[in-house]
């Protein structure tokens, strides 16, 4: 740590004559008071203070780990980077200080000082024995506010020097994550330090970067560009913290930042299914249930960031709902899911995604990222080219039915998918084609089981409720048989769903036969949907009445 930097920061806190004598203040030397640095929304769900005092740390819903009074900062009980990130962030130490302010229990503050001082002593920057993730960019960002909180009650050289180093690293553009939720956390951390010590350079840098970064991360439609809608909840929550911190600092909230924050709820609501859970797209678990957010009036929304979300009606758990992915190439928290669809109808999830398991670099994680873990067309015998964008080339939006056509060259030749959804008479139809033979995959929700499979018709059931998936070759409109149902396969992986973080369970996947062009029709609520054809016109007879579909020679549905 350069002495000049440390002295500069220290001088903002103490008179110059007191620098050499700076020590931790006794816990009883100052009556606790609730401060902006220690209270508010910055502190997420952490172990309770009694648990921390007992040395029991539970992160990410994993079983608690026991730590001693002298913490082993190199411990990694679950070989899990996310666990390491939370452990090294010291937010759980910050919980003690926040609760000290609320309860006046001095043993909480005393233990917080012990933990933080031990971390600083055991984890010098660049040290040979320093914990692997101690100085990774995200733990630095999340740890800074916790240390700022502690600094309200501790005047010690070791703490002030560590905060100066945190500010130096957070200011360094080489470490900055522009247009990403980590960048937002870095800005919040730097702003907290700058406000605490009255450093205008750090404060202004944090706010100016925040505006630029969030303008990149959230587009003008309010969609998060990180390719996993559940991260929009995180970014929205963290932007609230950022706005509060800017106000605490006596600074003006930039209008561009406020408008991006205010636009995110529409994206979150659009990505939330009628059952209240977010559709599991990208690195988004299936168990994310956001609070109620404002939503747009429109029941069908197309986001240029690469999402189509549609529903029959707002506020109706029985509403039909669907999602379709397209747009820019893979980045951040996205999966190779372009052209992937999900479908929810009659109070049930029917077509879903394999979902998000964890960030660990395992064969299973790599499979969840692949096209084969999504409801997509796969061109047979051709190499998949990752990071390929997909274009929405046609759309038709009516109240009762919508259709969309997409194209890309993810397999080196043209691949097309046209999707039509009919509401009230619930039907989803998907027409796949392209420059070669293809097959498609249909991942079923775990509560559904295949009960019959014959003649190009697969029937799935949830108790007495049934739905049918019918496949036809086009343009002949003949039934295509030979569908395989895969469940719980591990070599290679197929037939799995991750219902929550670090969990997976077997689930049926329908793998179609190979064809030049495939029309797949999903009909909820029946095991006997009649499908009649006349040229390129099809009539699907549903329990609620007939639905007429038309296919074109160019591969579109209407």
Task: Describe the model.
The structure is a single chain. The longest helix has 19 residues, at 230-248. Helix 6 (137-151) runs parallel beside helix 8. The chain has 12 helices and 27 strands. The chain has helices at residues 3-11, 49-53, 81-89, 91-103, 106-122, 137-151, 157-171, 181-196, 200-217, 230-248, 255-270, 363-369; strands spanning 56-57, 65-66, 300-303, 307-311, 321-325, 341-345, 348-351, 377-379, 391-397, 401-408, 415-422, 427-434, 438-443, 449-454, 457-462, 465-473, 478-479, 484-486, 489-490, 493-494, 496-497, 505-506, 509-511, 518-524, 530-534, 537-542, 545-550. The radius of gyration is 27 Å and the shape is elongated. Strands 9, 10, 11, 12, 14, 15, 16, 17 and 24 form a 9-stranded antiparallel sheet that branches. Strands 3-4-5-6-7 form a 5-stranded antiparallel sheet, with no helix packed on it. Strands 8-13-23-18 form a 4-stranded antiparallel sheet, with no helix packed on it.
